[in-house]
Amino acid sequence: MKALKIVGISLLVLILIFLSFGFLKPEIAYESEVVIEKPIEEVWAIMQDESRINEWLKEVKKIEHISGEKGKAGAESKIYVEQNGEEMFMVETINSIEEQDHMECTFTMDFMTMDYRIQLEDLGGKTRVTSKSVTTGNGMMAKSMLAFMGGAMEDQENLNMTNLKTLVENNTVDYFPEETMEVVESDSTGTVEEI
């Protein structure tokens, strides 16, 4: 009986220690940065191309637009991700977006809420891309679990940013095709016709 009491007290102490991590560190904040050897226009175009999102955010399987004007502040989408063979979704709400400058979003799941900002800076033919994330667990247990997951989440964001850099620097898609106009004289009067 005494041994059972000691085990019970030990277990209670461990649970209290675990929960205290969530109380002491209720949110996880981290940043990541890369410099991409391509102009800001191309970086932005690739980041906004949903058909290529899983080339740099490897866990994203599909995006389903829910409401608001797509790609504008207030728009909401379901983002389906796969982690360890398990599929789940989060709701992305765009809070602020300015072309070739930044995008601020909130990602909401049952387990957690993440405020995310990605900022672009023109470096004269190169682009600095900086992401900032603040993640809060939804509930004491989730906050405590996040306290132990912070390093893994930061590592994942660093990998995402490295994937973006590689994708953009190896890009072969022409997002800005130049229109060519051929000028041909159509008759002897000098009338010019565009084709």
UniProtKB/TrEMBL annotation:
Q: Which Pfam families match?
A: Polyketide_cyc2 (PF10604)
| InterPro entries noted in UniProt | Polyketide_cyclase/dehydratase, START-like_dom_sf
Coiled coil feature spans: none
Q: What is this protein called?
A: SRPBCC family protein
Q: Which organism is it from?
A: Luteibaculum oceani
